[in-house]
Amino acid sequence: MIDVDVAVVGGGCIGLAVAAELADYFSSVALFDRDYTGSEATGAAGGMLAPIMELEFEEFELLELGRQSLHMFPQYCRRLEDETGMEVGLRQQGTFYVATHERQLQEVKRLYEYQQRLGLEVERLPVEILKKRQPALTDQLVGGLWIADEKHIDNRKFAAALYLLCRERGVEIHTNDPLVDLEYDSAARIKTLHSNFTSVQPDLVVLAAGAWTGLLPGLAEQDRLPVRPVKGQAVAVGLDSSFSPDSIVHSPDVYCVPHSPDRMILGATMEEKGFERRVRFGGLYDLLFSAAEILPALRDQPFLETWVGHRPASFDSLPFIGPSPSTKNLYFAAGHYRNGILHTPITAKLLKKMIVDSTTPELAEPFLPTPERLLI
Ligand code: GLY
To answer: pLDDT digits over 165-178, tens only?
Structure first.
């Protein structure tokens, strides 16, 4: 049995960033991942840092969290790159949101009206200007928006750099080591955490296991976060030198995110199919069709790979960030749904404030794991 100050369960970008942050304040931090770090939702993501474009009608509480996190990204990545020597592919080239026919145009207009009501910095541009700014856009364009401030990142490089950052800061990383049990003591604290290969006695536990967070073995009923998997299929295509858009290009049906001058991610389906892992013909077909509708030159690009990921979704689409209402030494950082990469720096910062400074910033309030949100 090994004593540790902090045990983090989950090695996606959220778990890694929280572990790295806490390693600045605690002398022993251990992180457990049942697979390799960054293997699930983190590796499957598109890497969009787009709090405005990704905003759904009912999710306005996410806006401020996303914007503050977006604002942190340039400095966060600079520090990450300096400490690890790894480049993470942060690109600050904005987002186009475009329509090629009437149904999409209605959706673009509705979203724009909502964004205007919230006072967001979105421009509705004439087709000629959109085409001038992004010549790869189709000639069939009927309208679109431009959001200058949004960014994107290569999520896999980001996760790899966070892994290195954890190593640099002395986090003990246990990969391919699933949690098999969790024991509580009579004072409503987690006493021990057993993985396949080791057991630790932590002062503090942070659960950041994405869609698996509520399912961890040994978790008491009251700590079972209601997080469910929402399946997403995605595709990567190569880009040759004649076709290399540098902004996100989005329609109501697909997003296309250039990760580097020679790789673009097309995503992603939204499917309530539990942990089903197969790439299906229909999902792929829809993505490829919708992407070629807005960027026709994609038809000539090489196909690279396809995969499935599982977004961790809560009932209200908001993440859980903060202490368990029932267990004294337990914190959650899970349920980031469509925004895990975007919310990484702010989640690590908020948890640091709660754990190290014993303060709960106002920004965190909607995201606290209250008994109502845990349905207990
Ligand atoms: N944030 C993109 C997605 O969840 O598909």
So the answer is: 999 999 999 999 99
